[in-house]
Amino acid sequence: MEVKNKIMEQKYFIGVDVSKDKLDCAIILSNFSVVREKVVKNNDLKIASFLRAVVRKFKLNDSDILVCCESTGIYNRPLERVCSDLGIPLWVEQALKIKRASTDMRGKSDRKDAIRIAEYAVRYQDRKVLFKKPSDIVEKLNNLSKVRETLLGQKVAIENQLREAKTHDPKSHKELLALYRPCLRVIANQLKKVEIDINTCVEEQSDLKKNIELIQSIPGVGKQVALQFLISTNNFTDFESAKHLACYAGVVPFANESGTIVKRPRISKMANMKLKCLLHLAAMAAVRTKTDLQTYYIRKVAEGKNKMSVINAVRNKLVHRIWAVIQRQTPYTPQREILSN
Question: In this structure, are residues 289 and 220 in contact, taking their beta carbons and an 8 Å threshold?
């Protein structure tokens, strides 16, 4: 027992509140005592210098430290790069989870937020999910996917504006069309180039190509869904089970009860919304084609089930099927699936 306590005392937890220009860092022990606080500029050089100084001052191994921060998108990148290079464990957690787990929400400042994040890391260290740097090819695909999404959004916005003008203001439509035509041409050409680059990246990596083909063998699941699953899961290396992935995708219903009040189970909003949206489109496509999922959908609706609940069940089934074909490394075959009631 004494040895165990000694090991726990050697564990240092660094809570990091990330903003665009700076990181507010709080270092605490397993007994929640704060040993140091520091503000660090949000760049690779300063972050690396700070972490190395902590290791030297407290005479630690890299494994004796757990860095925890909220997910803030691109502002996290310097911290992610440095921790990966130095081999220091990093836990990137959803901000809402940390907020709801906090026992004291009196006052609000970057300094207090850093301490709350560090305390969260101490309390829930057994649930930590360590950050894994995505492979270069997955990172490139992610960037290409973002560019494609942005270009499509711009294209749709322009086309919607032109369509409304055509029906309600023909004169303005002619002028707008003349002005927007070059832009639409450029966007269309760039979209083609991005699509070619995506296909080239996939073709160059045999494992990515095979996984995309396996996922697309599932009825209702298209290339964009398959591609987003590869990007979101780092080619299925960041998740341990189909249930874990389903929770991440936001398709698992949770109990909604309080005392004698029992409501319908609800899905959580803490999810990858892009993945969830694509899964919804895939589910809608699956129930509109002659598949076992269409039969399942019709049967459940006829039994009086809520349509959206049934659609969510279809989304859940799709996630489990995607996970199954990746784990088996064989295409989807309906005969192997055992349909639930």
Answer: yes
Residues 122 and 152 in one domain: no
Tens digits of residue pLDDT in 54-78: 999 988 887 789 999 999 989 999 9
What's the rounded Cα separation, in Å, for the pair 91 and 69?
6
Q: Are 217 and 332 in contact (CB under 8 A)?
A: yes
**Residues spanned by the domain of 44:** 2-127
CA angle 270, 73, 214 (to 5 degrees): 70
For residues 165 and 152, what is the distance between their CA atoms, to the nearest angstrom?
20
Q: How far is CA 83 from the centre of its chain?
A: 19
Beta bridge partners of 16: 25, 69
* Triad 146, 150, 156: Cα angle to 5°: 145
CB 24 within 8 A of CB 115: no
- pLDDT below 50 — which residues of the chain? 1-10, 336-341
182 and 68 in a common domain: no
Q: How far apart are CA 329 and CA 163, in angstroms?
A: 45
Q: How many Å apart are CA 142 and CA 51, to the nearest integer?
A: 29
Beta-carbon contacts of 314 under 8 Å, excluding residues fewer than 6 positions away, are 283, 286, 287, 293, 296, 297
Residue type, 241: S
Co-location of 252 and 330 in the same domain:
yes
pLDDT digits (tens, 9 = 90+) for 224-238: 999 999 999 999 988
DSSP 196-259: HHHHHHHHH-HHHHHHHHHHHTSTT--HHHHHHHHHHTTTTTS-SSHHHHHHHTT--EEEEEET
Q: What are phi and psi of 199, to 5 degrees?
A: -60, -40
